[in-house]
Design brief:
eight-stranded parallel beta sheet, alpha/beta, four-stranded antiparallel beta sheet, 14 helices, 447 residues, TIM Barrel, binds zinc ion, 29% helix, globular
Length: 447
Amino acid sequence: MGRLGLLLALAFAVLGTVPATQPARASSGPPVVYFSATGHHLAEPFLSFWRGHGGLRIFGYPISEAHEREGMLVQYFERARMEAPRTCAAVTDCPVQLTRVGALLSAERREPAFAPLVLDPSPPDTPLRRYFPETGHTLAYGFLRYWLRNGALTVFGYPISEEFREIDPETGYTFTVQYFERARFEWHPEALGTLWEVQLGRLGAALATRDGVDTAPVPRQHGVPDYDPSLFPRAFRLPVLMYHDVGEPAGRYRIPLWRLEQQLDWLFAKGYVTVSLEQAYEALLADGPLPERAVVITFDDGSRSQLAAARALATRNMTATFFVVPGRSALGPAELRELRSMGHEIGSHSMTHRMMTRLADRDVHWEAEASRRVLQEWLGEPIRFFAYPGGDWNGRVAVIVSTTGYQGGLAAWGGARWTRERRWAEPRIEIGGTISLDRFAWYVERF
Ligand SMILES: [Zn+2]
């Protein structure tokens, strides 16, 4: 990215002139793209739906062309089938629905897990467990979190079973799974806190086999480009809340635990869903899913008191990103592993917390690169995001940080509008320790 883009982003940030919008839906990119991996095209109206509801990670590649079947326009994907009225071919803004592949493929199942539970009266929703009287099934913990973060009712539909253990027909391994109207969730504890803690069954492929659909690759139509997310514009409003220390007395950089918990309860009551920065950047750069009411919670500097916040989040099925200064923050390898075991995300906040615009190029490089390396050694996994100490960055610093192995960088101010141009200094909102709940709500909803 050019320096001009960064400077423009800075200007927008200062002036606050960019209007807020919700995640991009319609596109001004090409009306049809091609996937070399499977040899199929993806055109409207399915292209916009695919991009707007999760893209490759949720639906997989197209494995057929769009075609007419049972009086509808349909197209098969690895993990889904899309359908639209017959007259919708090549039409944007046509109503698209997902076939109830999970229900179709499990219709003969008679195991106890598929039997509806009649709970009358319905137990109240909690952050950790929800009962759906529509189908008589519950959704809890990691599966509930994944469902909320990646498409909920629109994409997956209601649960049609409880959790149970099942042998995966593809791999032969036994997993904890749950069936939904349009999906099969498979729990992967080794990937806890990443985008892959739940993996989706290849139900679209299974339905294509059952329906005898031709999935053979077809030659690319003349002039159709390969799918690439960068062919399409993408920008959205996403509040990223920035906290520091937790405890008393309250101050700009210290929030009492009770006040933080009040804010978390407000977020839950308003239907907000925490997402990781990994998911936010996937949404920005790769057409990944983002809930309408997404929020990212971050903590800087790695004080010990943040462990209490981490637990308060975990009891609400929420996760946060902790930016630490390895070797200087109180949170060391053992504490960071504990945070990971709760599903939280770890980012780097440099080696020494010096203001980076005042450093020489090689020192900027070292602050970013060495801290990433140390954290990766501690945790044995990639560290993807960097937060500038003191929110201090400029075009030179951002360009250097972008060469040190991260996926993105976070500023400490600038509103809530995410754009690709701001990838190395996406905005955050500072939440001081003394603000009222009304003020907090204003930041989340309007700032
Ligand atoms: Zn800091």
